[in-house]
Write a structure and sequence with these properties.
single chain, 160 residues, alpha+beta, six-stranded mixed beta sheet
Amino acid sequence: MPPRPPIPPFTLESAQQKVKAAQSLWNTRDPTLILPAYTQNSIWRNRHMFFTGHASIRAFLEKKWAREKEYILRKELFAFHENLIAVQFWYEYRDANFREKWKRCYGIEHWTFDGDGLMEKRMMSGNDVVIGKNGNGVGRWFEGMGPEEVDRVRIPEGHF
């Protein structure tokens, strides 16, 4: 696979670029666009699941977005060092497996990149909360927004 700039070692600016590029890719909800950012044998942990490689990643993402309707994501740089980046994230979605209730996931991801800027490891920890009374969505941060607008939302201090 061709290099995917920015490449390590990361600076503050290049780490922030990498995070926002990932945010943009994930907000497409298109595995075909997302997969080229990862090595062929990328190792993933997503909550309680562990898997490796493009075929497993594609299957995971397809299942994820079949369940997570109206998904919209924001990522922010948490820390970086050489070829490592940690991000804090928030995303909102309607849960197709839970009576279409609105939820928000909060979490942290730890990323490791190869020398070409491809992610070779992604470790994600996240927790979901229901948004609004009985999941009605009242209080959504990203309501009515497109992916290009999520960075304008002020995340409340207790959530950042």
